[in-house]
Amino acid sequence: MNTLSPDLDNGARQAALLTVRQMAEADRLSVVAGVSSFELMSNAGAAVAREIQRRWTPRPLLVLCGPGNNGGDGFVCAYRLAQAGWPVRVAMWGSRAALKGEAGQHAQRWPGEVQALSPAVLEGAELIVDAVFGAGLARALEGQVLDTLAAAGRGTVPIVAVDTPSGVMGDTGESLGAVAAVLTVTFFRKKPGHLLLPGRDLCGEVIVADIGTPEAVLDAIVPQAFENHPGLWLPDLPRAGLDTVAGHPPVVAADATQVLTLHESEFRRMFDFVGDKLTRTRAAAQHGSAVVVHRGSDTVIACPDGRAVIHCSVPSAATGELLGGIIRWLRTQGMPAFPAAAAGVWLHDVAAAEFGPGLLAKEVPHLLPGLLRRLYG
Ligand SMILES: NC(=O)C1=CN([C@@H]2O[C@H](COP(=O)(O)OP(=O)(O)OC[C@H]3O[C@@H](n4cnc5c(N)ncnc54)[C@H](O)[C@@H]3O)[C@@H](O)[C@H]2O)[C@H](O)CC1
Ligand SMILES: [K+]
C-alpha cells in the first residue's frame, strides 16, 4: 500500500499541510458539518491562552489585534487570560466596531479598553501576543503595524504568534516584515509557511491545536503537501528492507522515475523557475518528470504529480552523495521513487546523527538495515 498515494491514509492525514485557501475551505466544511465559525474562533483563542498558561506565570500581557479573524482569536485569548486573573491589555490596528462576524462578536465580549496600535503601547508589557494578521495577510506590513511589531522585535519581551507571526506568508514562508516569535500556535494543521524558511525560524516553537475541525474535511480537500514523517513512507518500505544484508541481490525498483538531489546552487544552474522554494521545486519535478529533492535546512521533495513533502532539519556537513546512496538503496528494496526520496531524506538526518559526518555512501547497505530495524522493526 503506497502511503503517499492519493487516498489519504492515516500517515498522510496526520502529516498534511494545508494552504491558506485549503484552510479556509476546512473552516467552511466544518461549518457545514455543524461546527460554527464562532466555536472555531473560541477554541482557537482558548488554545492560545492555554499554551501561554502552560509556559508562563501570570504577568502583564499585551494582545495586539488586527482587523480580521486573527484579531478575533486575539480577543478570545485576551478575554480568557483576563478571566484567569492575568493583567491584560489589548491594542488594535483599526477599530473594534469595524470587526465583522464572529471576530466582532468576540471583540464585543472584551470588557476593557482597546488602545490604538503604536510602539508606545509596548511599554510595561512582559509578554506579547501577535494577533494582527494570520492567514489573511495580503501585502507587506507598513505604518503603525510595521513600526509596532518592529519595536517589539527589537525588545526582549517574548512574542507569541497566533497562527503565524504577522507578515509571514502561510503558503510560502516568505516574510513581508514579520518579527520572530518564540511560540506560534496554529490550528488544525500546519501550513507550508510554518516549515519553509524564513517562516520556520520566525515561528519559534510551533504548536498545532485542535479547534474542533472534523478530520473528515481532509477527504474533500485532498492535501498535496506533507511534513516529512515516517508515517508517510514506512508502510512503503518493504519488510525486506529491514532484513536485507549486504550482498543480497537487489529487488527490482518499483518504478523508473528518476530522483534528482540538488542543493540550491545546483538547482539554480539547472532550472530558472521563479517564486518560493515549494513552487520552484514542484515546477522542476513537473518539468523534468522526476522526483526532485531540493536540499537545505528546509528540504522540499516534489513529485511530478504535484505532491510535495517538506523536511526540516538542522544543517549538516553530510554530502549529497550520501543522500543519493541512501535513496538508491531504498529503491533497490522496491520502494517507489517519491516515498524513497522522503524516507531517504529522513534517514539521512538520522544516519548523520548516528554515524557522524564520516559515513560514506558505500557503507549504507551495511548500516541502514540495522538502523531501520532498531528504529521501526
Ligand atoms: N481553521 C483555522 O485555521 C481558523 C483560523 N482562524 C483565524 O483566522 C485567521 C484568518 O482570518 P482572516 O480574517 O482571513 O485574515 P486575517 O485576520 O489574517 O487578516 C485579514 C484582514 O487584514 C487585512 N490585511 C491583510 N494584510 C494586510 C496588511 N499587510 N496591511 C493591512 N491590512 C492587511 C485584510 O484586508 C483583512 O481585512 C487565521 O489566521 C486564524 O488566526 C479562525 O479564528 C478559526 C479557524
Ligand atoms: K499573527
SSE topology:
Blueprint: H1 10-15, E1 16-17, H2 20-32, H3 37-55, E2 61-65, H4 69-83, E3 88-92, H5 101-108, E4 114-116, E5 127-131, H6 143-154, E6 159-162, E7 183-187, H7 199-203, E8 205-209, H8 217-221, E9 225-227, H9 230-233, H10 239-243, E10 259-262, H11 264-270, H12 277-288, E11 291-294, E12 298-302, E13 308-312, H13 320-332, H14 337-355, H15 364-376
Parallel strand pairs: 2-3, 2-5, 3-4, 5-6, 6-7, 7-8, 9-13, 10-11
Antiparallel strand pairs: 1-9, 11-12, 12-13
The protein binds ligand LP7C6HRI and potassium ion.
Q: How does this structure look, described?
A:
By secondary structure, the chain is α/β, with parallel strands linked by helices. The protein folds into two domains: 15-221, YjeF N-terminal domain (Rossmann fold, 3-Layer(aba) Sandwich); 225-376, UDP-N-acetylmuramoyl-L-alanine:D-glutamate ligase (3-Layer(aba) Sandwich), CATH 3.40.1190.20. The protein is 41% helix and 15% strand. The chain contains 15 helices and 13 strands. It has helices spanning 10-15, 20-32, 37-55, 69-83, 101-108, 143-154, 199-203, 217-221, 230-233, 239-243, 264-270, 277-288, 320-332, 337-355, 364-376; strands at residues 16-17, 61-65, 88-92, 114-116, 127-131, 159-162, 183-187, 205-209, 225-227, 259-262, 291-294, 298-302, 308-312. The strands form two sheets. It has a seven-stranded parallel beta sheet with strand order 4-3-2-5-6-7-8, sandwiched between helices. A six-stranded mixed beta sheet has the order 1-9-13-12-11-10. β11 (291-294) and β12 form a beta hairpin. α3 (37-55) packs across α5 (101-108). The longest helix is centred in the N-terminal third of the chain and has 19 residues, at 37-55. It is elongated. The chain starts with 9 loop residues before the first helix and ends with a helix. The mean pLDDT is 92. It binds ligand LP7C6HRI and potassium ion. Potassium ion is lined by residues 70, 130-134, 161-166.
